[in-house]
Amino acid sequence: MRIALFGVSGGIGGALLRLLASDESVSAIYAGARTPPGEIAPKVTPFHFDLLKEDTIANAAARVSVEGSLDLILVSTGVLNDGEELVPEKTWRDFTPEAFSRAFAVNATGPALVAKHFLPLLARDRRALFAALSARVGSIDDNKLGGWAAYRASKAALHQIIRTCAIELSRKNRNAICVAIHPGTVDTPLSRPFQRRVTPEKLFAPEQSARHIIAVLSDLKPQDSGYAFAWDGARIPF
């Protein structure tokens, strides 16, 4: 199995990299980050990319394509709070154009550009999968609390991107699957300021979350393409 991972410098991305690098069925991993990791295993090839710069994504795709098609493309990037432009809002009075621009650039436009350049690299002669990390709060139907509008909206946009790409992908590659996946609340810097009300059994270590993600992705079938799934395999309504 040949895999491309985006965002391996993050908590979940790093855990996914370590988990997949230890899997004997995986023959090659292309591990992408703004600052690529050092040597992890002979099967791991680091590469640089910047989610906000399309040319770096295009260059990565050109490099990977030389060595063959991919079985799994997994985008584990995202931003909830950067302490500057983007701080989760409690009320509409907190809305700023900077927050919405930042959230959409990282959580929606970036994964869309990865899809643009990497979906054509999915294998056509066997099951292949593209997945992007999302969040349950991106579900419009599930929103009962309000708040966090920029983050929620950017993840809802990601769901629409996934659905749109899945429809086109079904016409070009019938074995391929395109989904969003919610990892749960993971003990990483992204969620740390917002863990106060999370019960211990619902707060996952990155390694635990990585195992959940791979287990869910492993069970998906082409008819699941175009949807969002939670860490436990349940489908999340858009």
TrEMBL record:
Q: Which GO terms describe its molecular function?
A: oxidoreductase activity
InterPro entries per record: Fungal_SecMetab_SDRs, NAD(P)-bd_dom_sf, SDR_fam
Q: Name one Pfam family in it.
A: adh_short
TM spans, by residue? none
Q: Which GO terms describe its cellular component?
A: cytoplasm
* SUPFAM superfamilies associated with the record: NAD(P)-binding Rossmann-fold domains
Q: Out of the domains of life, which is the source?
A: Bacteria
Instruction: Please report the name of this protein according to its UniProt entry.
Output: Short-chain dehydrogenase
Give the source species: Candidatus Viadribacter manganicus
